[in-house]
Design brief:
Helices cover 38% and strands 17% of the residues. By secondary structure, the chain is α/β, with parallel strands linked by helices. Helix 1 (12-23) packs across helix 6 (217-229) and helix 5 packs across helix 9. Bound molecules: uridine-5'-diphosphate. The site of uridine-5'-diphosphate (UDP) has 15 residues, from helix 5 and strand 8.
Length: 313
């Protein structure tokens, strides 16, 4: 049994990780400043004896009393809409927040686990993306605040590993979806489902030919725990390899919801990657991890969740 600190513990991913860790008998201390996180995601855990919630901004100094076995740093705005609205906070939590979380891990002799992102590959010129690809990121574009913060976070993590001997893990997360995404999160899966359920137009940015590879949250979290428990200290992609165009996703969602929503086309956001697909050879070889839930099944669970939020059609 381990005692694990999760920054961003009230967020979409942080709350699912808390569930998974508690289910296997670990203790969880969730830190969150509730900027994009929500106590609704963790209120079912408040009575759990292994769970503690602390309202804290990890971009400031943090301290957790008692033994800590691992610090998992998941705090950050993670949707393009959010990080465009909160560019400075995004840069701060990726840089100062990572530094503070690493400092906590070092002081406690704990393992450190960084939530990184496929965004470190930018608009990739290598397809699918392997971990040794250095990426194609515009540092001064509007997405740069997220991409460069996460790239800095990876560099800082490796520095603590090399110079302070901290036992570190870095996961590069690919478009993950599932229950507890916010309806107004702005990301494509939640947008399309909410639009289809409420009969609003489906908003495709650009011509819809750009691709993403969508990972269901339960698969993603299983990958996190496998990486946490492994001895792999270098960055590792965790993502589903099934690649879809945004138009294909729109069709699948409207068909599954049975929606009559029309499709509308809007400007493509600046620096929106044209393609994205993980190479997961490393995760499969080192962790024995493969995704098990394909898009249609994952969407079924996610649509069912959003029906409870958005109301019935
Ligand atoms: N997208 C879209 N309509 C939306 C929201 C997003 O067409 O209402 C597109 C977006 O331009 C991008 C893809 O869907 O090409 C995935 O966007 P998301 O914000 O989910 O994630 P990211 O761009 O970070 O992969």
């Amino acid at each position: 049994m381990a005692r694990i600190v999760i920054t961003g513990g009230a967020g979409f991913l942080g709350s699912h990780i808390s569930d998974a860790l508690l289910a296997r008998g670990d203790e969880v201390v969730a830190l969150d400043n509730l900027v994009t996180g929500d106590t609704a995601n963790i209120e079912h855990l408040f009575g759990h004896e292994g769970f503690t919630f602390v309202n804290a901004d990890v971009s400031n100094f943090i301290w957790v009393p008692g033994d800590v076995d691992a610090v998992m740093h998941f705090a950050s705005p993670a949707s393009p809409i959010d990080y465009l609205e909160m560019p400075i906070q995004t840069l701060k939590v990726g840089s100062l927040g990572t530094h503070n979380s690493l400092g906590l891990a070092k002081a406690k002799g704990a393992k450190f686990f960084l939530a990184s992102t496929s965004e470190v590959y930018g608009d990739p010129l290598v397809h699918p993306q392997t971990e040794d690809y250095w990426g194609n990121v515009n540092p001064v574009g509007p997405r740069g605040v997220y991409d460069e913060a996460k790239r800095f976070a990876e560099a800082m993590t490796m520095a603590y590993h090399r110079y302070h001997g901290v036992d570190t893990r870095i996961v590069r997360i690919f478009n993950t979806y599932g229950p507890r995404m916010r309806p107004n999160d702005g990301r494509v899966v939640s947008n399309f489902i909410v639009q289809a359920l409420s009969g609003q137009p489906i908003t495709i940015y650009g011509d819809g030919s750009q691709t993403r590879s969508f990972t269901y949250v339960a698969d993603e979290v299983r990958g996190f725990l496998a990486l946490l428990d492994s001895d792999v200290t270098t960055p590792t992609n965790i993502g589903n390899t099934n690649e879809f165009t945004v138009s294909e996703l729109a069709e699948m969602v409207t068909e599954m919801v049975g929606s009559g929503s029309e499709v509308t086309y809007h400007d493509l956001p600046v620096d929106d990657p044209t393609q994205r697909k993980p190479d997961i050879t490393k995760a499969t070889r080192e962790l024995g991890w493969v995704p098990e839930i394909q898009l249609r099944e994952g969407l079924e669970h996610t649509i069912a969740y959003f029906r409870t939020i958005v109301g019935n059609r």
